[in-house]
Design a protein that fits this description.
Elements: E1 30-34, E2 41-45, E3 57-62, E4 64-66, E5 70-75, E6 80-88, E7 93-99, E8 107-109, E9 114-121, E10 126-133, E11 136-137, H1 140-150, H2 167-170, E12 178-181, H3 193-202, E13 204-211, E14 233-237, H4 239-247, E15 250-254, H5 256-268, E16 274-278, E17 293-297, H6 304-313, H7 315-327, E18 338-341
Parallel strand pairs: 1-18, 3-13, 3-15, 4-12, 15-17
Antiparallel strand pairs: 1-2, 5-6, 5-8, 6-7, 7-10, 8-9, 9-10, 10-11, 13-14, 14-16, 17-18
Length: about 350
């Protein structure tokens, strides 16, 4: 039962190993390569990533695009307010978290004539809001335009600094296309334009869209991890992409979000296009059935993503890999180094 106990997924990480900035150039980030068949660990870097990826692999990428999801404003009384957008909820409404006390009907004043109106007050600090400019309600497209002008990059909570202009590109993959994420699919951040050119020339690849939510940073709370109700995220994949995934001989998922998507789609066992919620929780009681290889970063203790990694390599080997990464002073989390599981 050890593999289902929450405490089994805890570990101590020296704070200096939490990456505050990405490697520059991208190829200079370090890469730990783990071979499941032998348990062998190799220390390399992303400049040599393609030396390790089997040529017959289908590479699956998540092309979601990170919103500038953090807004700063104030109430009419003058109190400062921070709004963090989680996801679109209706045609014109958005689910948000708000730092500062608000009630239904309150207005939050933003710059340039924009404001947010609180429609509902929900549990756990969540609110539903609509956005306006000069009293005209904004549709979702106009909201995304507003965020590009007023919003700030939503750096993860463990990066203890304010966002900078450089984060607008650093915290976005070079192939990001579809707005909707409030957190980056971080394994994707390692790929430069030249690396993507290599992918296109040497490998078969597909793109799907999973809009990463803030729930990706939340710890699992249930002592028996199987009782955890995982967050859901919006997934979209067209028919051709799903067909290629279902027919692939070997699949390398670029990041945990791509892996969650592949495993969710594989359990549907059909090749029709999909647009809807993805709520799969991968752990040692629900192992992957379609993913052969995984490229990922190093994840938070007690997180569902650490449990996902364990579902591929086993709990004891996961612990051994993380001990080795800490010993070798790899950089952890979103802007950190990576691991390739073969």
């Amino acid at each position: 039962m050890e593999e289902f106990l929450l405490q089994s997924y805890d570990y101590d990480l020296p704070s200096e190993l939490i990456a505050a900035y990405p490697a520059n150039p991208k190829e200079s980030a370090r890469l730990l390569v783990y071979e499941r068949s032998s348990g062998k660990i190799t220390h390399s870097d992303f400049a040599h990533l393609f030396d390790f990826i089997p040529k017959d692999s289908l590479l699956v990428f998540n092309d979601t695009k990170v919103l500038k999801a953090r807004l700063f404003g104030h109430k009419q009384s003058g109190g400062k307010i921070e709004v963090f957008i989680h996801r679109q909820r209706g045609a014109n409404s958005f689910l948000v978290q708000i730092k500062g006390r608000v009630k239904k009907g309150d207005e939050i004043l933003l710059d340039d004539g924009f404001c947010a109106s609180v429609l509902e007050v929900l549990d756990q600090g969540f609110r539903v809001v609509e956005f306006f400019k000069n009293r005209q309600r904004l549709d979702s497209y106009q909201v995304y335009e507003m965020l590009e002008g007023l919003g700030h990059t939503p750096l993860p909570p463990y990066i203890k600094r304010d966002s900078k202009e450089s984060d607008e590109s650093d915290y976005q993959s070079v192939f990001a296309r579809h707005y909707g994420a409030v957190a980056a699919p971080t394994a994707s951040l390692h790929f430069s334009d030249s690396m993507m050119a290599r992918v296109r020339s040497d490998y078969q690849s597909v793109f799907l869209t999973l809009h990463v939510g803030a729930g990706t940073f939340m710890n699992v709370e249930s002592e028996d991890i199987r009782l955890h109700q995982i967050h859901s995220e919006i997934l979209r994949a067209n028919k051709q992409t799903i067909k290629e995934i279902m027919q692939a001989r070997k699949i390398l998922c670029i990041g945990t979000t791509a892996m969650r998507s592949v495993e969710f789609l594989a359990r549907r066992d059909e090749e029709s296009a999909y647009s809807g919620e993805c709520d799969i929780f991968l752990h040692l009681g629900n192992r992957p059935v379609k993913t052969d290889y995984l490229l990922t970063n190093f994840h938070l203790p007690k997180s569902s993503l650490l449990m996902l990694v364990s579902s591929m390599v086993g709990l004891n080997e996961c612990k051994r890999i993380y001990r080795e990464a800490i010993k070798q002073q790899y950089r952890f989390y979103s802007y950190g180094d990576g691991m390739l599981i073969l």
